[in-house]
Amino acid sequence: MSPTHKYARIESERRFLLRALPADLELRTANRIIDRYWPGTRMRLRRIETLGGEAIQLKLTQKYAEPGRSPEETIITNQYLNQAEFDLFTQLAGVELVKRRCRYLHRGSGYSIDRFEGHLEGLLLAEIEAGQGVLAPGSVPDFAVCEVTAEPAFTGGALVTTDAVQLAELLAKWLEVG
Question: What distance in Å separates the CA atoms of residue 160 and residue 141, rounded to the nearest whole number?
Answer without folding.
Answer: 26
